[in-house]
User: Fold these one by one.
Assistant:
Number 1:
Amino acid sequence: MRREVILASRRVYEEELRKSLRAICIPPDDGSPIDPARLDDTIAFMALSVGGISLAGAVDDPVFCEQILTVCRQAVERMATPDNESRTNAEVPDHARN
């Protein structure tokens, strides 16, 4: 029973995560497929954001907490600059190709 609950929770979590990633990748009124390179960039953005918040919240030292958040914020800003174009399909890892 416990395993079934864990698996069901994972399925729901994944479904909601995919919705969030799609919302970041594509405007709501656009039903086009997600570009695999853009999806990879969005996953990296989300992981950096969520991971940074998790790490910052897990440390006791407020200075270190702020350092973690600052470094993550700067990394996200670098990722979001127009100069940082998404990779071409030739550069997309195999797991992202369909």
Number 2:
Amino acid sequence: MAHKPAYLAIALAVTLASVPAALPAQDEVPSTPANPELSEGARKLSEGMKLLLRGLLAEGAEGWDKLVDWLDDISQYEPPERLPNGDIIIRRKPDATGDGETEI
């Protein structure tokens, strides 16, 4: 797949975003949490965030594929041109690949 580096970059960004910026030193972490409910809530929030990011990454990959296909398709056309009567035409490039049919 030609777009693998982009997926890897997105995956790396998501991974880095899910890691806290500054982790306390091991000797600073208490052995038992002061508030177990708070710890449990933070753990659940972290799990939920991971699931959300995985879901967004999966949907983003599908959207990325569609965008890349669209951009590849649009590269086969010249820029829009406005005629004196106000009509706008978009010509296919002479070297564009296609079946020769006009899509309306």
Number 3:
Amino acid sequence: MPGTPPGATKAQPLTQAERADLPPSPAAGRRRLDSSELFGDAQEIEIVHRQQVYRLRRTALDKLILTK
């Protein structure tokens, strides 16, 4: 896969059955997003919070790192 580090796999969106197996969100008003919905084919995204830019990066071991 282009742009994917060696050994990493591309995350696939959860199926409806897999989503049903997740525990419900514990608080009203909380949103749950699958990381594949955020990243698509990218390895890194930028999130703006209070006029500050944060980077959310997917590592070669498919972990997430958030940096300012």
